[in-house]
Amino acid sequence: DIQLTQSPPFLSASVGDRVTITCRASQAITSFLAWYQQKPGKAPKSLIYGASSLQSGVPSKFSGSGSGTDFTLTISGLQPEDFATYYCQQYNSYPLTFGGGTKVEIK
Amino acid sequence: EVQLLESGGGLVQPGGSLRLSCAASGFTFSNYAMIWVRQAPGQGLEWISTISASGGSTYYADSLKGRLTISRDNSKNTLYLQMSGLRAEDTAVYYCAKDLSPQAWGQGTLVTVSS
């Protein structure tokens, strides 16, 4: 199974900050990586697929990069609505797996 | 607009069974693989099953294999998840989602396993 390790698990940031979340895969997954945002009591919302492609309707302050085993999600200019938990997911092979999540909190 | 609407969750006793449904609209259901993902209270996301667009291929998380059956009715645009031998640790919100890296998710249905 492919393990996805997200770091950091918690991130405290201020409005306007630029933050970066890392996702490391235990083996190469080319670019079959997605990122999701989840707010309490809500379903996940897709942000990025194919490691770096922005989903339709997602603001360009979100960006993804990486390939192989190391990936990043960057959020530029944090706004109050961006405080949430973020997950990465690999869909290179079964079982599909998710990272443990990164909770972005207000400093 | 793509919509996925789960139903069938609720309170079930340990060892019991439940069938979840996911009604899809707003896209050509028969063209897409579908997945189920669950989230235990306060925990992260866990993929549990995938079914191919035609229904001819199915995949399950090893931890649940033998207790789950995923199926679909493309004529009714509906996805199903039959769960049996339910345990307390199966308590979670169950989401259906479109495709392997889903852009569209249902709102989730809560399954509580308790006596």
Based on the model shown, name its key terms.
heterodimer; A: 107 residues; mainly beta; 7-stranded mixed sheet; 4-stranded antiparallel sheet; globular; B: 115 residues
Task: Write a short abstract of this structure.
The complex is a heterodimer of chains A (107) and B (115). Chain A is mainly β.
Architecture overview:
The complex is a heterodimer of chains A (107) and B (115). Helices cover 0% and strands 50% of the residues of chain A. Chain A contains no helices and eleven strands. In chain A, strands 2, 4, 5, 6, 9, 10 and 11 form a seven-stranded mixed beta sheet that branches. In chain A, 36% of the residues are buried. The model of chain A has no long low-confidence stretch (mean pLDDT 97). Chain B is mainly β and 115 residues long. Chain B has strands at 3-7, 10-12, 18-25, 34-39, 46-51, 58-60, 68-73, 78-83, 92-98, 104-105, 109-113. In chain B, strands 2, 4, 5, 6, 9, 10 and 11 form a seven-stranded mixed beta sheet that branches. A four-stranded antiparallel beta sheet of chain B has the order 1-3-8-7, with no helix packed on it. Chain A binds chain B through residues 32, 34, 36, 38, 43-46, 49-50, 55-56, 87, 89, 91, 94-101, and chain B through 35, 44-47, 50, 59, 61-62, 95, 100-108.
Number of helices of chain A: 0
The most extensive interface between chains reads: A-B, 23 and 19 residues
Q: Mean of the pLDDT scores of chain A?
A: 97
Q: What is the overall shape of chain A?
A: globular
**Computed CA radius of gyration of chain B, to the nearest angstrom:** 13 Å
Task: Write the topology of this structure.
The complex is a heterodimer of chains A (107) and B (115).
Chain A: E1 4-7, E2 10-13, E3 19-25, E4 33-38, E5 45-49, E6 53-54, E7 62-67, E8 70-75, E9 85-90, E10 97-98, E11 102-106
Parallel strand pairs in A: 2-11
Antiparallel strand pairs in A: 1-3, 3-8, 4-5, 4-9, 5-6, 7-8, 9-10, 9-11
Chain B: E1 3-7, E2 10-12, E3 18-25, E4 34-39, E5 46-51, E6 58-60, E7 68-73, E8 78-83, E9 92-98, E10 104-105, E11 109-113
Parallel strand pairs in B: 2-11
Antiparallel strand pairs in B: 1-3, 3-8, 4-5, 4-9, 5-6, 7-8, 9-10, 9-11
